[in-house]
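re: that chain from earlier
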Amino acid sequence: MTGHFSVDDDGYTENFDGVQTVLNTLRRKGVKAAFFPTAITLAQPRYEASVRRIIDDGHYLSAHSYAHLLLCDTAGRTLVTRDSVVADLRLQEKHLERFGLTKEQYRWMIPPYETCNRETAGFYFDEGYSLLSPTDGIFTGQDWTRPGTKGYWSARRIIDQLWDYESKHSLDGVILLIHAMDYPWRKPEDRPYNYLGEIIDTLRSKGYVFDDALVPW
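^ sequence. v structure.
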């Protein structure tokens, strides 16, 4: 699960408002997950209790950068300096450690926008981080797209595509990205995180097992 908080509009466009629903589902289903909100999200008092619950419920907590830097463009050209990434990481670490976590506990992270190139990945590796990336070919991360636009993926289309992928490739060991965010252009029934329980139940019916030992990796 990732999330980001848009400070310029007090979280109207981007937020972490789906996190309690997600946590309730995970507790009810007895499943552990990994959460990677940006650290600017961790800094918001409105999420203090939710973040502590992530830790108390035994989920993995790291971050997604502090300010959601765009590391490179679509052509792979680096857009940031090493110093800017390191400064962003220091802010990330400050807010993670405020919740009692150590570097060893949060060293696995997802880069901002789930995108980096070899050079920017090196910036993170040099600072002691290991990077995760969602599995290619699965479109659960398209839950931010807007109805009425060319690139829109509805919640139902996202879930149908997930099962189509599973039938062809299996979901064993994949990394699924879902945003625990209430994008204002999506109604509750069009937010994939609200179908997390259905996804978990279907996976179990197909024989999949959720192994707590894999979180953290």
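The chain has one domain: 2-214.
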